[in-house]
Design a protein that fits this description.
The chain is mainly beta and about 525 residues long. It has a single domain, classed as Porin. Helices cover about 10% and strands about 45% of the residues. The strands form 3 sheets. The chain has an 18-stranded antiparallel β-barrel. It has a two-stranded antiparallel ribbon with strand order 1-2. A hairpin with a 3-residue loop joins β13 and β14. The longest helix is centred in the N-terminal third of the chain and has 22 residues. The radius of gyration is 23 Å and the shape is globular.
Length: about 525
């Protein structure tokens, strides 16, 4: 068993933890039909029409995923699928956190891919190889990028994003482990081409690290991880793997993890890895250094609760904000309380930042809350959720102190898949309802209302790009973002989700001559093995 369960990375139940995704792949009921022989799902006859070479490539992958689904489901009876779902753990977004050592017992192997999840090297415990991966096929359409006045022209046809992840994991006993992962992220058909950093990276080494562990089966344990690795802490408000965009992010460096008396403490020192679109051309950014200490433990004063406390440090040689570009050395301290009761769940966080920006100081802050109540007695088990967040913005431009909050390296889509607004100089209210239709479907209508926190600062778009400067308007209200998403968990390998978002511009954007409302659609299917 893996002692390092990474308790810092287990978020509470909330609408914010449900991935918005979907599928242009039409790999739902229309693509699959019941076999007349045994009732299992099989692909219907497909007629693929391709308007371009890229569309044909996309269609080919869609068909391959459909056939893989049929093979996966057809290889097992309905009863064995049900038992497999009960006996085997769910896949994790961060595959390096998975532990397949339990498959050493042949009686626990029930899945089609179990033979590659556990390949023994020696006839000893924890000596094994494990392989796996992800395939994600995604369609996006944003009709008026940047409210009609930014990079990329009006586009009603949309574009395709593909991502492939493959990993290998070698456990050489209880003290040494090697993990490697490659990523291929491709873009087809976007007006203006792929967006930097987040859309395309043809082939890259996403992770390559070695773990050295001591006492990995005792209550106290120690692990040193050295190499290229993904980082994820808490609910990923400040540090995340950037799962939602097409290209994930990683860091080069070292991480030390200590488990002792219910505490997990992580200390790390890293360089951020720059995404380049070519083949094996990603490299650490010499201008960006990131370090910190993150600690988490259960807190019995709260129902099923935990508390996180942390310090994070960032040094960037050329950081850009509304007031200009300069060297940024920023320190963040924060705490997070999260957990759930029988019906209530909560996830609250507060952060203070200080440091220097050029010759001036930094003083910034944020408060974030995510609270929900689930009506467990109703058939669709609706969760009524409300998020409320505030991030500080800059003050008087004659004051040398920078007061704009920096979200560091957060999850890619902070306020939904559309990712229009970054958490800097903003306030939002975000009501939502999660509806559970059986065990496989989740429907979530929600709406986000955005304001500026400071009238002396503009609004930013991920990854903290200034979109509209402060002088464009004295209005505070930015806009309204209603959306609805549907997620279908076909089985532990397949997830299909659809999301539609409509952004209605407010007075601030209209005053800045950004008057085009936005319609956004994304659909994707994710296959994990």
């Amino acid at each position: 068993m893996n002692t390092f369960k990474n308790i810092a990375h287990v978020p509470p139940r909330s609408a914010g933890n449900i991935r918005t995704a979907s599928t242009m792949l039409q790999c739902g009921p229309g693509l699959l039909g019941a076999s007349p022989l045994d009732g299992t799902l099989v692909p219907r006859r497909l007629a693929v029409r391709c308007s371009s070479r890229s569309k044909c490539a996309v269609a080919t992958i869609q068909v391959a995923l459909a056939l893989a689904f049929a093979l996966d489901v057809g290889a097992q009876s309905p009863s064995s699928l049900e038992e497999a779902g009960k006996s085997e753990p769910a896949y994790k977004k961060s595959h390096q956190d998975e532990d397949w050592g339990f498959l050493r017992d042949p009686q626990k192997r029930s899945d089609l891919f179990d033979p590659i999840k556990y390949i023994p090297i020696r006839d000893e415990d924890q000596w094994y190889l494990s392989f796996g991966g992800d395939i994600r096929e995604r369609y996006e359409m944003e009709d008026h990028p940047w409210w009609g006045h930014g990079p990329g022209s009006t586009d009603y046809g949309g574009y395709d994003l593909q991502r492939y992840l493959a990993h290998g994991d070698a456990h050489l006993g209880r003290h040494v482990r090697f993990f490697g992962q490659i990523e291929s992220s491709l873009e087809y058909g976007r007006n203006g081409g792929p967006r930097p950093i987040i859309d395309e990276d043809k082939l890259s080494l996403q992770q390559a690290f070695v773990d050295l562990s001591l006492n990995p089966t005792n209550d106290s344990a120690f692990r040193l991880r050295i190499g290229r690795q993904e980082l994820s802490f808490g609910s990923q408000r400040l540090v995340g793997i950037r799962e939602e965009p097409n290209v994930r992010q990683s860091f080069d460096g070292a991480r030390l993890t200590l488990l002792s008396h219910q505490w997990q403490v992580d200390g790390f020192a890293t360089k951020w890895v720059i995404t380049n679109p070519g083949i094996f051309d990603d490299a650490e950014d010499p201008a960006t250094t990131f370090w910190g200490v993150y600690a988490v433990r259960p807190w019995t004063l709260l129902p099923h609760g935990s508390v996180d406390v942390y310090y994070l440090g960032l040094d960037r040689s050329a950081a850009k904000f509304a007031r200009g570009t300069a060297r940024e050395t920023r320190h963040s301290i924060g705490t997070r309380l999260s957990g759930h009761g029988a019906a209530w769940d909560y996830n609250d966080e507060a952060i203070l930042q200080w440091g220097s920006f050029g010759p001036g100081d930094i003083r910034a802050w944020t408060i974030a809350s995510d609270t929900g109540y689930t009506l467990t007695d109703l058939g669709v088990r609706p969760r009524l959720g409300l998020k409320a967040d505030v991030t500080s913005g800059d003050g008087n431009p004659t004051d040398p102190t920078l007061r704009t909050f920096d979200p560091l390296f957060p999850k890619g889509s902070y306020f939904g898949e559309i990712a229009l607004i970054a958490p800097a100089n903003h306030m939002d209210l975000h009501p939502s309802i999660d509806l559970k239709l059986g065990t496989a479907w989740t429907i979530t209508p929600e709406c986000v209302f955005f304001w500026r926190q400071s009238l002396n600062d503009g609004i930013y778009r991920p990854p903290e790009i200034l979109v509209v400067p402060a002088g464009a308007s004295r209005s505070r209200f930015v806009g309204t973002q209603p959306s609805i998403q549907a997620e279908w968990h076909i089985n532990r390998h397949y997830t299909v989700t659809a999301n539609y978002t409509h952004f209605i511009v407010g007075p601030f954007l209209r005053d800045a001559k950004l008057a085009e409302n936005i319609d956004y659609v994304t659909t994707f299917i994710n296959y994990t093995f």
